[in-house]
Write a structure and sequence with these properties.
The complex is a heterodimer. By secondary structure, chain A is mostly helical. Chain A is built from seven helices and no strands. By secondary structure, chain B is mainly α. Classes of the chains: A mainly alpha, B mainly alpha.
Amino acid sequence: MAVSALLHWLAHSQLNELASHTRWVFAAAQAIHFMGLSVLLGAVTLLDLRILGLARNVAIARLFGLIPLALVGFGVQLITGVIMFSADPSRYWSNPGFRIKMLLIVLAGLNALWFWLLEHRRLQQLQPFTAAPPSAQVVAAISILVWILVIAFGRFLPYLDGIELRWLPSGL
Amino acid sequence: MSALVWMKELPWVVAFRESSWVYPSVETVHGIGMGLLVGTLTVIDIRVLGGLRRLPLELLPKLSPFLWVGFVLNACSGVLMFMSDGPRLIDNWIFQAKMILIGLGLVIAWRLQRELAPASPHARVPAGPPRVRGPAGTSQRMQLIAALSLLIWYAAIVAGRVTAFLGDQ
């Protein structure tokens, strides 16, 4: 119920007016969304691949500076994503690809939280040339995989428009 | 031009264009390649410009494989997408601008890699006086190259999106 109210509100908001009636606003939001994608994927991949064992001569802690950069990329994507979503909220919401993409982003967020709460401090103390603990490597592998899937579902969105997936709860 | 039309009508190119999952998969590869290429360059350029100071400068040349992997992914997926829509794209000035930007961006990325690479021990010319360097540890010349790199690659992304957007109309 709360979801349909939110969709209704967004569909009648000024943001909707802006994004759906001015073509270049949507296009610009999408272009900036792709810029955010590059920043996020670049930062996350470099950190994850180091945790997975590449470039061992670099202490992992020195790569932690990439985390704020990844957050900036994500913030840009969140803002531009909301703008695009508000152009046609109910159509996005009824697209199964969109819902799967959102679930994957939540998963990526939980994974990042796990990293921050349980792995981050241990990794900080690691010297160069030492391998990250297996649990941190699992987090890094999940991170790369999930972000790639997020990109994939983003690209597949137009192709999944109007398709119903029975196993996906419609009330979600 | 007729070669582009011929290419576009090749049976496997037609099948590729009309496939409900192969075409978006290639678009996905293009997106991942873009993220690797531009993302890695963003990290390098920001560090050269003086941000992300915790990253050692010596690390930057080691990031170049990510950049080239990203580029190869994008070149391959890009050629496929071009083949399926060549006649329209070749005359589109925004697409032409994107290709020019990519060419410039590659030259700039290569220049910056050379600036960052440790001097070869076999260099015939002896090292000159140490260059004046700011708190970032990089010369102004390198910073200029890095700023140009950011500008060019993000402009290429915009050109790519505009090209796709015009195609949808």
